[in-house]
Amino acid sequence: MTSDSQGLSRSMHLGASTRGETVHPIMELRNLDVYYGSFHAVRDISLDVGANQITAFIGPSGCGKSTVLRCLNRTNDLVPSARVTGVIDYRGQDLYAATVDPIEVRRRVGMVFQKPNPFPKSIFDNVAYGPRVTGMKLDKSETADLVEHALSKAGLWSEVKDKLDQSGFALSGGQQQRLCIARAIATSPDILLMDEPCASLDPIATSLIEDLMLELVNDYTVVIVTHNMQQAARVSDRTAFFSARVDDAGQRYGHLVEMDQTSKIFTNPSDSRTEDYISGRFG
Amino acid sequence: MNSSVKIDDFSLRSSSLRIGERIIRGTLFAASAFSVLITIGIVWSLLVPALEFFRQVPVMDFLTGTRWAPRFKPASFGVLPLIVGTLWTTTIALIVAVPFGLGSAMYLSEYASDKTRRRLKPVVELLAGIPTVVYGFFAIEFVTRVVLKDWMGLDVGTFSVLSAGLVMGVMIIPTVASLSEDALSAVPLAMRQGSFALGANKMQTTLRVVFPAAFSGIAAAVVLGISRAVGETMIVALAAGNKPNISSNPLEGAQTMTGFIANAALGDSRVGSLEYDTLFAVGLLLFMSTLIINFISIRLVRRYREAY
User: Which CATH number fits domain A3-278: 3.40.190.10, 3.90.740.10, 1.20.1250.20, 3.40.50.300?
Assistant: First the structure.
């Protein structure tokens, strides 16, 4: 991947880089169903997440895209009534196999949330938190190096290097979100999930985060949920379009309409519902 | 829009005509002014006899004297024995209440299912509803006699600060537990999710993220527990005894500030006598201590409040 092709894809406002053409799946979802109590919220999702690609999940509210994202690192387990069936194959192992420890999953699949959620700690301790709790044995200078590395990766180092001991809450919303990204990459995850990471940010902070995603994808696999279709078009290689429909019993549920290269989804989708959504006719 | 209604008069009514609003405002002001006035009244009624007392007994003698014998001849007014007694019972109470209170708060807020929490929390809070005189009897009859003497074989008399402190600790568990649980539950779910998403387990999340985030509320809960322990009267009057005693042995009895007031107020001190004024001097000291504790509490809450 050269910076030229990134620049080109961004200037076209299409994520139509060469990355989207071939997929080396790092995660394969097969017939995934999610229930909340007796509510069958998301039905029969099968899709592949390509390694070192940005995969975008788009679709109207209530289509289950965030629910599916939360399955990828088993954060749905934290909702007491949630139940997941189907297979998520991650490097040859089923994430939902009974023997798999969800804490192990989350150490490899990091997550950035819609609203920045720094901890009530210093900037330094926010970033060092992951390595500390996951038992990485680091001495003082190694920790400091790791914190600097993560903050630099998140494009925040130059802004905070003189105030690492200040509270994470002292930063602006966009800085807090980059702090949360730094925090997530400090544990060197394999995959980074982002659940509408720019939903509460202004356009300048948003564009910083988008640039950051394009940087991160060189080292990581990124899956992003977004309501902003321009954002999906700008940054992602492949896009999955989810929608909601009502079953015979009157229950509304989310399903996957189609998934393809982002350029194809945005210019020539195979399903008319995708085209209606992209062109703003519904949702 | 009903076009048959026409407004002919375009003059705007004077705001002074809103009499109802002003009456309500006045009534509510009176309600809050009343409680402020009562507080001032209490302080005043404490202050006047206490100042009379300090005209006869120098403040330094009162605060640093080690012998408390207001009814003996010659009388001695060193309040340190009462302070030491209060420190003993309060410290023992906190040793019981803080771990059990915080432990149950963490369990209820972080570990228990919704159903368990809904059932368990009222039961914990029930402990706070038991009259303190019942706790007092529980201390003498059960804790001192059965637990300390028979079960643990300790050489403990009828009265001991240990027994009084232990039972007082049980009494303030619900205060610490309930308020800390509120503080922990108020920490946004997003913060826990952030921690879990980094691969932290439940205990790490609870201790390293939720607990610090709730620290100001937890500090307030503990401080309120301290004020209750310092001000608690019935349990110590019954179980700690009424012998002023600077002792390093918690198995001995001792009188606390509240214990002295409860004891002496039942006596027949003549109004205006030095013995009568002594009550108010100790009362003022007690009032000042809880005031200082509350002041520290407010500072702590401000200092550690997190704007999430």
Answer: 3.40.50.300
Would the CB atoms of B201 and A119 count as touching at under 8 Å? no
For residue B217, being part of any structural domain is answered with: yes
CB contact under 8 A, B198 and A187: yes
CB-CB contact of A85 with A108 (8 Å): no
Is some CB atom of chain A closer than 8 A to the CB atom of B194? Answer: yes
**DSSP letter, residue A156:** -
Provide the ipTM: 0.85
* pLDDT tens-digit readout, A130-173: 999 988 888 889 999 999 999 998 889 999 999 999 999 989 98
Question: Sheet containing A109-112: which strands, arranged edge to edge?
Answer: A93-94, A82-90, A25-36, A39-50, A252-261, A238-246, A54-58, A221-225, A191-195, A109-112
Cα–Cα distance measured from residue A47 to residue A240, given in angstroms and rounded to the nearest whole number? 8
Name the minimum distance, in Å, from the CA of A58 to any CA of chain B.
22
Instruction: Give the three-class secondary structure for B202.
Output: helix
- A187 contacts B199 by C-beta, under 8 angstroms: yes
Domain ranges of chain A: 3-278
The answer to whether B225 touches B172, Cβ cutoff 8 Å, is: yes
Query: The CATH number of the domain where B164 resides is what?
Result: 1.10.3720.10
Q: Using an 8 Å Cβ cutoff, are A110 and A184 in contact?
A: yes
Task: Provide the number of structural domains found in chain B.
Answer: 1
Show which of residues 201-260 on chain A sit within 8 Å of chain B, judged by CB atoms.
Answer: none
Residue B63 lies in a domain: no
